[in-house]
Specification:
Elements: H1 10-21, E1 28-32, H2 39-51, H3 65-71, E2 78-81, H4 99-108, H5 114-120, H6 132-143, E3 152-157, H7 164-175, E4 181-187, H8 195-198, E5 202-205, H9 211-222, H10 226-235, H11 240-248, H12 251-268, H13 271-283, H14 286-307, H15 318-327, H16 336-351, H17 356-371, H18 377-382
Parallel strand pairs: 1-4, 1-5, 2-3, 3-4
Helix pairs in contact: 1-2, 6-7, 9-10, 10-11, 12-13, 12-14, 12-17, 13-17, 14-16, 16-17
This protein binds zinc ion.
Zinc ion (ZN) is lined by residues 52-54, 60-61, 64, 66-67.
């Protein structure tokens, strides 16, 4: 990953390079940006730039030994850490056994999120975290001399996955840095980090990618056509990772079809169809079920946004828009909060391993009642 390959963030990139050129390199930096902002891409381009032996103003040279090692992610002084799970039967809890899939994932491209990482390591039902043992190991590694004599760089993805004891161990490294060490934390939710960590790192806010840059990025990295790219980014509010996800999973259209059929069945209390649909619901496994529930939440929120006349804020594709024009009147302030609660609760139940079909039948019955609530209920009570 070079700066020229990073989607958008041109000013931020220039600032980072200028700092490096001037020798202003904070030893602990936190790139904080939401999923799809490309914070990881930016951190990786920056690490390459720091290690490059002949960097130009605009980018790393691309041809020195260090750059060549970066092409295959084999630079001996570039260290990675990220959330992982403890393998069954293993007595240690280190990222070591996940380094190979991690490298493979990064070489495929740095625009991915937790969902893709979970899938890459087959961690469907497992809780990911960064262990204390991992923090101890990082302390050890960064205490060693650099192989190539320059910077030792650590990129730690999702520091919010550190538990308190882990974070405290890392804090020591932040407070008493080893020689020529740069730690780049890449976070999606920095507010979940210990305040003591946040106050000791140089914070770099990575905003969402602007629409035009995001469209170009989708075209460049994922070969998506202009029109489809705009459509996807419109729906995902410029989140490239989610856009790719929606497109990749034949899922997107399937979710839409299922949602439409389901809402009809819920409204008419059609039990036979609901049972049939529950088969489709559970077919793709837990991640697919969770995705569908999130999709349903998204659609319901969009109905409300549209109902309140904020059409420009509505994030929907053409066919979704067509359906919601008819469906939106059934969603109103008298039932929307409860509908959201029902769905959010279902999302938690799925994550907690409750039987998918039971969940589906249960929420269908609840939604039937809620959808039939008249829009005026709350008003008439308050009058
Ligand atoms: Zn170079």
């Amino acid at each position: 990953m070079r700066f020229e390959q990073v989607i958008g963030h041109h000013e931020l990139g220039a600032k980072l390079r200028a700092g490096a050129q001037a020798g202003r390199v904070a030893h602990a930096q936190l790139f904080n940006g939401p999923e799809g902002s490309g914070a990881l891409a930016l951190a990786l381009a920056y690490a390459r730039y720091l290690h490059c032996s002949d960097p130009a103003d605009a980018d790393a040279c691309g041809s020195c030994l260090s750059c060549i090692q970066y092409d295959t992610l084999q630079h001996p002084d570039l260290h990675w850490s990220f959330p992982f799970f403890k393998k069954d039967g293993s007595d240690h809890s280190l990222s070591q056994s996940f380094q190979a899939p991690w490298r493979e994932r990064i070489l495929q491209g740095t625009y991915f999120g937790q969902e893709e990482w979970l899938a890459a390591i087959g961690a469907d039902r497992k809780q990911l975290y960064i262990s204390v043992q991992e923090a101890v190991e990082l302390n050890r590694k960064l205490g060693l001399k650099a192989f190539a004599g320059g910077w030792k760089v650590l990129i730690l993805w999702l520091p919010e996955a550190m538990r308190i004891d882990t974070a405290n161990k890392m804090l020591k490294l932040i407070e008493e840095p080893t020689d020529r060490t740069v730690m780049l934390f890449v976070s999606e939710q920095a507010n979940q980090l210990l305040a003591t960590i946040r106050s000791r790192v140089q914070m770099i806010q990575v905003p969402r990618i602007g629409m035009d840059d995001a469209v170009e990025g989708l075209k460049f990295w994922f070969g998506v056509g202009e029109e489809e790219a705009r459509d996807l980014l419109q729906v995902t509010d410029g989140n490239i990772v989610r856009a790719v996800r929606m497109r990749g999973e034949e899922g997107a259209d399937k979710d839409y079809q299922l949602f439409v059929a389901w809402m009809r069945a819920c409204y008419t209390n059609d039990a036979i169809t609901t049972v049939e649909l529950s088969d489709d619901f559970v077919k793709g496994g837990r991640e697919a079920m969770k995705r569908f529930i999130r999709y349903a939440l998204h659609m319901i929120r969009q109905c409300i946004v549209g109902n309140y006349g904020a059409q420009s804020l509505v994030r929907l594709t053409e066919s979704e828009r067509e359906f919601t024009t008819k469906f939106a009147p059934f969603i109103h302030h008298g039932n929307v909060l409860e509908m959201q609660e029902v769905l959010e609760h279902a999302h938690r139940d799925i994550a907690g391993n409750v039987n998918g079909k039971l969940i589906f039948m249960d929420i269908s019955a609840r939604l039937n009642i809620l959808l039939r609530k008249p829009a005026t209920t709350v008003l008439s009570q308050s009058q």
